From TrEMBL:
Name of this chain's protein: Alpha/beta fold hydrolase
Molecular function per GO: hydrolase activity
Domain AB hydrolase-1: 32-90
UniProt keywords, alphabetically: Hydrolase
Ribosomal protein is among the record's keywords: no
Taxonomic source organism: Pelagerythrobacter marinus
Length: 109
């Protein structure tokens, strides 16, 4: 399943669609996620949960770590032996992490 999803993501048409949805940051600006300058992440103060697969070959783990550093009220959970599709590859653990986060932050289910 992971290999199939990775192959689809690598097709030129798929990559072009992703690029159009995530424009490059302004010249001289660094972005954690394309189009989201780090200054904007620094301004977000609401509780944020970041879940990332350690073996993700689409978005490097460093992107999640950098986002976590700039989102001052964030939690980062890294799933070992997991690729890009955390919610599919580790569904039960994903849901458990999300429920714990919502319970701890007063979020609704």
């Amino acid at each position: 399943m992971v290999a199939a999803r990775f192959a689809v993501a690598q097709r030129s048409a798929g990559l072009e669609t992703i690029r159009q949805l995530q424009p490059k940051p302004a010249e001289g600006k660094v972005a954690t996620v394309r189009g989201v300058p780090l200054e904007q992440l620094d301004a977000i103060t609401v509780p944020t949960l970041i879940m990332h697969g350690r073996e993700d070959r689409i978005i490097p783990l460093e992107v999640a770590v950098r986002a976590h550093r700039h989102l001052t009220n964030s939690q980062l959970h890294v799933f070992g032996q997991c690729g890009h599709w955390v919610q599919l590859e580790r569904e039960d653990e994903f849901v458990a992490q999300l429920e714990m986060f919502l319970d701890a932050t007063g979020g609704s289910r």
